[in-house]
């Protein structure tokens, strides 16, 4: 299944000017209980960073189609898709006083310029921004880069 998802992901050509390409990675694998024993069960979890041009619904459809294809080829396969978190990308213009204030505070207290940039990472802001426009003042501010 993972190999087939990787093959399907490689065929996706959609890009976004701000966010780049969508990313799908199998990041957690759980199976087996001992060495030298074929596991009777395996669980894999994916981290997917979508873009509007290759969105959550499209990836849900892709995973379901790949699962269907695998089940047809391997009739004894018990394969389920369980989407337990699905948040869309969040967009703002970045042109607002809150962003400007965060940049000036970053410069003042951290001694470095804080860039205005897009982040493809999932954020609770997806839920908070549902009825807000692209001019709503939003920042994601913290250590590291996504």
TrEMBL record:
Specify the protein name.
Succinyl-diaminopimelate desuccinylase
Q: Which residues form the Peptidase M20 dimerisation domain?
A: 7-74
Q: Which domain of life is it from?
A: Bacteria
Origin organism of this chain?
Answer: Staphylococcus nepalensis
Name its co-factor(s): Zn(2+)
| Similarity remark | Belongs to the peptidase M20A family.
Q: Which UniProt keywords apply?
A: Hydrolase, Metal-binding, Zinc
Keyword Metal-binding appears in the UniProt entry: yes
Q: Which SUPFAM superfamilies match?
A: Bacterial exopeptidase dimerisation domain
Keyword Zinc applies: yes
Give TM segment ranges: none
Q: InterPro entries this protein is in?
A: Bact_exopeptidase_dim_dom, Peptidase_M20_dimer, Peptidase_M20A
